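Researcher: I'm preparing a figure for a lab meeting and need a structural model of a single chain. I don't have an experimental structure, so a prediction will have to do for now. The sequence is pasted below. Please return the structure as tokens so I can convert it later.
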Amino acid sequence: MKKVLVGLSIGVAFVTGVVLLALHQVQLKCEVCIRYGGRQVCEAAHAADRTQAVMQATAAACAQLSSGVTAGLQCSNAPPVSLECSE
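Model: Understood. Here is the structure written out token by token.
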């Protein structure tokens, strides 16, 4: 019984540590507004650095604005109408 409790305690501590480390890495939030095809969408994303957050927010906005691979690539290459990042 004691071995089970010790094993369970170690498992819970490990999972807690992994979750805390993952949450600590996501420190930056960026909101990107993209205009494509006559429409505009704003999306936000959280990431460890600015480049990743901007890319993720742009991809989320373009997913709503475009359909198909070609239109998606064109949308993702469009300059943002607005871009705001904060910690």
